[in-house]
Amino acid sequence: MITTLEKVREGMSAVVKQIHGGHEIRQRLGGLGIHEDDHVKVLRTGFLGGPVLIGIHGTQVGIGQGMAAKIEVEVDEGK
Amino acid sequence: MRIALVGQPNCGKSALFNCVAGYKTIVSNFPGTTVDFVASQVHLNGDGFTLVDLPGIYSLSTTEREEMLARRYLIQERPDLVINIMDASVLSRSLELTLELLELGIPLVICLNMIDEADKKGVEIDVGHLSQDLGVPVIPTIANRGQGVPELFQSAVETAKSGKRGKIHSLSLDVERAVSELADLFGSPTTTTLGLPQRFLAIKLLEEDEELERAVKEINPAAMGHVERLRRVLSECHGRPSDVVVSSERHSLAMNLFEHVAKVKPRASKPFRDQVDKVLMHPYLGYVFLAGVLFSFFWLVFSMGKHIEEPLLALFEQFAAYLGAHLSKESLLFTVANGLIQGLSGGIGIVLPYLMPFLLGLTLLEDIGYLPRAAFLMDSIMHTIGLHGKSIIPFVLSYGCNVPAIMGVRIMERSRDRFITAVLVTLIPCAARSTVIFALVAFYLGPLRALLLYVLNVVVIAAAGKILTRFMPDASSGMILEMPSYKLPQFSTVIQKIWFRLREFIFIAWPILIVGSVILSLLEYFHLADRINGILSPFTGGLLGLPLAVGITLIFGILRKELTIIMLVQALGTSNFAAVMTGEQMMVFTVFSLFYIPCLATLGILRSTIGNRGMLFALFFNTAIGTVMALAIRAFYWLD
């Protein structure tokens, strides 16, 4: 299922498909190790419009709702 | 010899810097920059070099201002050697920056830091292989315990002397072709002017680097046509923009290197941090805990401060009284001495009681790794005034004292966020301004009115935040924040950090306070108080409808807010304010003193945090808010 990162349920894994919103956002996310085709796991979903917490490459990164909405992902249905 | 420390944020760079701070002789802040890059002269085993601590950067492709400064230093100043500090526990990500640094062609040594953390995570790294793959020395360290640090610097000095550079890794064939075509095209004139290796320039241009693109347009405008053509070729071949093509290449190169040199063992038990985070970042419990932390922090700073401040100030008063008995009270000498004592005691009255417990608490929270969690929880709430989660800490602490709160603004990376938070923080009534609220409003007009003032204050701050963020819109697309693992703070690091921050107050804000204090004593000596009241009368009497004698108390309030009430007693000749002021006047006076010009110590620290212009802005902005709010109170009474 293709969706955006802020909509993924807690505990689900997903693969980053595309990062929308241009050069700057790609660079900021890339710096933290988030690229297309990377596997991420949603550890906390945004509470009351708060940020999403994801696990990626052995680290944890908090991403604000606005930015998470620009990350298109494919949810792993198996997990 | 100049050695620069480069690494991603939170890789233990400062721990390493502090580690060698013991050998340090001079520390200077770089002039003209808002970000503190610290340089320090280090002597080690007979070799002397300058160690430059650059702000943390995730990548050399950046649009963030602070990261840009670090990059410009590397490109324009070209240090003799770069120590690339890597957090061993996030090796694959750290390697992406390393690959970029290698392209710069500056001799490099890798400090594989937090090797113990990696071990705990089950990541086993083959240091020999890593060193071979990158062609540079790799030294494993645990910087906060000083482990491996002497070996690191020894290797750094040797490598700098030999000038040995690391390996440059090839990208895939078609990207490599585009890169070398561009590199050849630039030839030496362009790259010499920019001081960059051709290959680095070519890669960065394919990555759509704006700064370098501007530079090339000036020097060699014809080349840009080729750059655009090659970008198109790449993006057509790969079906994604050329910057994504290049960064994905680097990403997969880093992943391959990681797989070659590291083994990850599966872990049997759930990591400690996950169990703690279950509570600390829980959607409900997390907030309860946060409120508890902030409350106890505030309580610690406020209560401890009060208990220490009072006896300290009494001591100074005794000394002033002793001087008064021996020198003639009317003499110029006594006036100057008294001003000096006031200034000194003002500094000590803030430093010891408020700043020390604050800095201790902040440093502990910072080193444990709680601050990013607090920021995470508060992000959506702070967004309503256009700021991010991190600004919650200075806001809460400001109720104790504005000075440490403004220092706390440094935990934010962006200068815009620092500026807005620093300005807003000065609007919060600190303990001293609260005494005005208590002594005038709560005492004479009732606690409900006093509470109302605090609520009004929060509303005004939210509105001011809205106004400021309207003029300085958030250029970032929102928060993105790494959550570090929890760490046990190291005693020596904590002490060093506290001293680093304390020193700034002592050498920058305190002198301003002392000079201001002497000037005010002189005003009194030359009987200029009436003159000042006269000058201020159109404002105090005319506009705000206050007794003329309060003019001078407002001036003294700038020196120290505690003086406002004391001077009010002196100026009005009574401590029974109800006899000489109406309820309206009390409200107007309190509201105006709540918002107008911050105290000198606050101005001093504002100046060193957001610069001269920022300080002047805060001064006018706050006074304007104070005036408008005081007039609003008058209007309210008039309508009533």
Largest sheet of chain A: 6 strands, antiparallel
Average residue pLDDT of chain A: 87
Number of helices of chain A: 2
Strand content of the residues of chain B, in percent?
5-15%
* Proportion of residues in helical segments of chain A: 10-25%
| Assembly form of the protein | heterodimer
Largest protein-protein interface: A-B, 35 and 43 residues
Low-confidence stretches of chain A: none
Helix/sheet category of chain B: alpha/beta
The span between the termini of chain B is: 73 Å
Q: Count of DSSP E strands of chain A?
A: 6
- State the helicity of chain B in percent bands: 55-70%
Average pLDDT of chain B, rounded to a whole number, is 85
What descriptors fit this protein?
heterodimer; A: 79 residues; alpha+beta; SH3 type barrels; 6-stranded antiparallel β-sheet; 2 helices; globular; B: 640 residues; alpha/beta; Rossmann fold; Helix Hairpins; 4 domains; 7-stranded mixed β-sheet; two-stranded antiparallel ribbon; 27 helices; elongated
Q: Could you write a compact summary of the structure shown?
A:
Chain A has 79 residues and is of the alpha+beta class. In chain A, 16% of the residues lie in helices and 39% in strands.
